[in-house]
Amino acid sequence: MPVDHDIAAETELWDAYAASAFKDDADPAFCWTQYAGHGPGPELLGDPRSVLEIGCGTGRALAHLARRGVAARGVDLSPVMVKKTTAKWSGTGAEFVCAEVLEHLRREQREAQETYDAVYSVFGAAWFTDPGRLLPLVRQRLAPGGVFVFSHPPAIPGAYGPQGMYKGGFAGRAMFTYRYSYRPAVWERLLTRAGFATATAEVLDAPHPGHIGTLLVRAVAPGTPSGPGQTA
Q1: Does residue 148 register a pLDDT over 50?
Q2: How high does pLDDT run on average in the chain?
Q3: How many whole angstroms separate alpha carbon 223 and alpha carbon 196?
Q4: CA 93/CA 7 separation, integer angstroms
Q5: 23 alpha-carbon distance from chain centroid
Q6: Which residues contact 128 (CB under 8 A, 6 or more apart)?
Q7: Whole-angstrom distance, CA of residue 232 vs CA of residue 145
């Protein structure tokens, strides 16, 4: 059953996260996993001319792509985070938008803005947004042959679907959000049902045995890429 999110409350939660997660001395970096230097890099996006990162957080991945000449836009729910990333990465050419991701994608659709060669999420909005609502909107914003790639921790066995998550432990004000966890095969079905031509999902092992792995998902929109900047 779909879960109704309290966007105002979640904005406050992510503002609090921004205050602790953003580092003024951070450098651009792109990594799909929670372990620095482990796993694949931006090559999973192909060779895009334009990208959208949903739930762009500290902006390090987006800045990395922008410095490589990619037209890079990110959307994040936290105005605190967007203010910080805009100030930090203004020289890279990356663009940061403060918005709820579903509203942003719907607005772009209504305004008939150009599509993206790639949409991606690194422990971002793809983990915290109802896939039944998110995936069709992402599909519509992709150019023919465009890719959608996202990563986040794998589901805990037996705990699937929307999972409630408190911030800062179990005392104090009740600040919480929902994350969405599914087995890899279920992610593949959700994506193909949303209109993607192909979808692959796998759990990448951690660099140390017994540590938490990373769910890595890549889906390709139907159609033939129109130019060298798009890779299916």
Answers
A1: yes
A2: 92
A3: 10
A4: 29
A5: 20
A6: 55, 177, 178, 179, 180
A7: 5
Q: Is the pLDDT of residue 229 over 60?
A: no
Q: Tell me the angle at which helices 101-111 and 131-141 cross, rounded to the nearest 10 degrees.
A: 30
Residues 6 or more apart whose CB falls under 8 angstroms from that of 17 comprise 78, 81, 167
- pLDDT, tens only, 14-66: 888 898 888 988 899 999 999 999 999 999 999 999 999 999 999 999 999 99
Q: What is the pLDDT of residue 75?
A: 98
Tokens of 163: 């999972």
Report d(CA 61, CA 78) in Å as an integer.
Answer: 17
Residue 214 has phi, psi (to 5 degrees) of -135, 125
What pLDDT, on the 0 to 100 scale, is given for residue 24? Answer: 87
189 vs 174: which has the higher pLDDT: 189
Alpha carbon separation from 56 to 22, 94, 98, 140, 196 (Å, rounded): 12, 11, 10, 20, 23
The Cβ-side half-sphere exposure at 14, using a 13 Å CA radius, reads 28
In this prediction, residue 13 carries a pLDDT of: 86
Residue 168 confidence (pLDDT): 72
Name the nearest CA neighbour of 64 among 89, 30, 32: 30
Rounded to an integer, what distance in angstroms lies between the CA atom of residue 123 and that of residue 117?
20
Length of the chain: 232
